[in-house]
Design a protein that fits this description.
about 160 residues; 5-stranded parallel beta sheet; alpha/beta
């Protein structure tokens, strides 16, 4: 099934390149490979910088998410200038807030992998894990909080 999915995705990508269709609107398809949530924070900026450097070498669709669209756009421009990336207009931007579960679920439904940089995780992490489960997205964070990690493993292992 994975090989067939990969072949199907390659065919769809060729059609998208010719503007025949937009994969982002196909049922079951994700608009982004990766979303960096909390990209305007201290750690999030480091992740965005690395994503910019990676995107110079690799083809990946990705977005930066945060509470403020203006701040997200500012961080992308600032870091793109720092690392010498000229083309950054195709980097997606998403507004999401951990206090708005609907926005979290919407963000997670658009990506294959969500990198969560919003901490502290014991306060804000569970909502994002639940959003990833609802949106069928893989979850990755940079947490060093053992209690949070243990609770997530115990509470969500079966659901994931």
């Amino acid at each position: 099934i994975n090989a067939e999915y990969g072949e199907c995705l390659q065919i769809l990508n060729k059609f998208e390149e010719k503007n025949y269709l937009s994969i982002g609107h196909c049922p079951g398809m994700k608009q982004f490979d990766i979303v960096v949530f909390g990209g305007t924070g201290y750690t999030g900026e480091h992740v965005v910088r690395e994503m910019l450097l990676t995107s110079k070498e690799e083809t990946v669709t990705w977005a930066v998410a945060g509470r403020s669209l203006d701040k997200v756009k500012h961080v992308i421009r600032k870091l793109a200038d720092e690392v010498g990336v000229d083309k950054y207009s195709d980097i997606g931007t998403i507004v999401a807030d951990v206090n708005d579960m609907h926005s979290i679920e919407q963000m997670c439904s658009q990506t294959k992998l969500l990198i969560n940089c919003v901490g502290p995780y014991y306060l804000w992490g569970r909502q994002v894990v639940e959003g990833c489960l609802a949106g069928n997205a893989h979850y990755l964070d940079i947490s060093g909080e053992p209690l949070f990690m243990e609770h997530v493993e115990v509470d969500y292992h079966e659901k994931s």
